[in-house]
Amino acid sequence: MPTLLLRLAGPMQSWGTKSRFDERDSDLIPSKSGVIGLLCAAMGIYREALEPVLELAALRMGVRVDQPGVLRYDYQTAQNVIAADESKVHPTTISRRYYLSDAAFLVGLEGDDQPLLARAHRALRHPTWPLYLGRKGYLPSPGVYLKDGLRDEPLRDALGYPFIGQRWSSDQDGNPLASQRLPVWLESDDGSGSLRMDQPLGAFAERRFGARYVVADSIEVPYVPEQAPA
């Protein structure tokens, strides 16, 4: 079964699934709703569209953590915020917005609809709208597109892709390790694992998300020396 790989790396990224009011959270790995939303932006799928979102949401997702990053938050204020019951105006409201600093993830989406994955792969190279890592202003660097990101192999095998982080581990003599095990989170199809409420259930304009389950595991990734510049 084919798998599409995405590289999610950048100075800042945020994948909140529980945000309410002035506290904006971020999970420690990309959410499925955020990844599908990114693909919709690349493919030019409008917020009101239903069927294209459900097609993408049916793909099975896995995440490999190449660089976990550091959880931080922005301290922001907003002025003249109208109360929900419109009874008053708050002169200043404090908002904490959490994000991951300097993280890198390899995301895989597995499905038997190869033409859909091929369209998504082409769209990542030439996206219709700008791509963000969970929040506007959080730009991917390097880009999400991987030239060889459309793999003719199942999800777990595809996540054995070469390391995409910045710092490969070394031994005590400073030599790069021959391989290292990296944590992965694989979507479960039997209800095992931990619960996440980030499965898109409708158009993004409706903001309806349901449950899915993910299982924690790890995968061996071999060291690949960097190619010398031509």
TrEMBL record:
UniProt-listed GO biological process terms: defense response to virus; maintenance of CRISPR repeat elements
Pfam families in alphabetical order: Cas_Cas5d
Listed Gene3D superfamilies: 3.30.70.2660
Keyword Ribonucleoprotein: no
Keyword Membrane attached: no
UniProt keyword list: Antiviral defense
UniProt GO MF annotations: RNA binding
Highest rank taxon of the organism: Bacteria
Matching InterPro entries: CRISPR-assoc_prot_Cas5, CRISPR-assoc_prot_Cas5_N, CRISPR-assoc_prot_CasD
NCBIfam families in the record: casD_Cas5e, CRISPR_cas5
Protein name from the UniProt record: CRISPR-associated protein Cas5 family
Protein's organism: Truepera radiovictrix (strain DSM 17093 / CIP 108686 / LMG 22925 / RQ-24)
